[in-house]
Amino acid sequence: MQRPDIAEPGRRDFAFRTRDFKRVQGLIYAHAGISIADTKEEMVYSRLSRRLRATELSTFDEYLSYLEMAGNETEWEHFTNALTTNLTSFFRESHHFPMLVQHLTGLTRERPLRVWTCAASTGEEPYSIAMAVAEAFDTLSPPVQILATDIDTKVLTVASAGVYDAKRVADLPSGHVRRFFQRGSGTHAGQVRIKPELAALVRFKPLNLLTSEWLGLKPFDAIFCRNVMIYFDKPTQYAVLKKLTDLMEPDALFFAGHSESLLFASDLVRLRSHTVYERAAIGTPAVTVTRAKHLLRTLA
Ligand SMILES: C[S@@+](CC[C@H](N)C(=O)[O-])C[C@H]1O[C@@H](n2cnc3c(N)ncnc32)[C@H](O)[C@@H]1O
Hints:
Elements: H1 18-32, H2 41-55, H3 60-68, H4 73-83, H5 96-105, E1 113-117, H6 124-137, E2 144-150, H7 153-161, E3 163-165, H8 174-180, E4 181-183, E5 191-194, H9 196-199, E6 202-206, E7 220-225, H10 234-246, E8 248-256, E9 269-273, E10 276-279, H11 285-299
Parallel strand pairs: 1-2, 1-7, 2-6, 7-8
Antiparallel strand pairs: 3-5, 4-5, 8-10, 9-10
């Protein structure tokens, strides 16, 4: 999703003091874990000044106090949506997809396979996963369920609609476009829409990686957590990774972004291949049973 990041230099409708910027940095860090660099003041001004206009407030001080008033969830949503960066594309970091399908097709489960993409943005990533598994299982209804979540509710609306500018699929093999997309005509000329059967594999849901609103999720066979950790500092990355690895099956894979190394968390994950991780050694059920038997023998 493209949006202009920088206000025209020297043209500010509202005063934006360093104090205001620091307050924004603190609020978005506490709410979403996002660390905004000190160099991003202009970008933050540009994105948030729209919220001042929308709320008809005349200073950042008033706006931020309004935001902090109890029960102002809707403005928190706007505030967060304004400050996220949602750059994505179909089959981004393409080496991950053959690895994912090799992994999934090698699993034996008596249930549909579960994949989670936890920073799904406008949907290109989960739909790429859906296309890859549909190809691998040679059906538009493979035994795979994809959960696609993001903190940003605006991008999830785009993702659920599954409608894209045709330019965004220009680099995909033509067979993929024919098989998985419908081309728009009339007022929709120049657009493509994900086919309903493929879209049915993906469930979209807002979810903040920082909170525990994701309780109740079942363990996954693969997790895509790409290009979101870069916005978090190390303690936040570790805390998020801990929760994510707790939701991985013992043999699940974790896909990270190209510039995200998780080697600092070697107690949680182990590198399997370029930016692909598996869980660090954990007690498998077999080991646990052996230990339990040993304990029973000792107690007898
Ligand atoms: C750069 S995009 C990455 C999209 C996709 N994973 C990819 O690699 O192409 C980062 C996404 O992370 C989301 N995000 C940022 N903080 C988040 C949080 N605390 N919880 C969930 N999603 C978050 C943003 O809304 C944004 O859509």
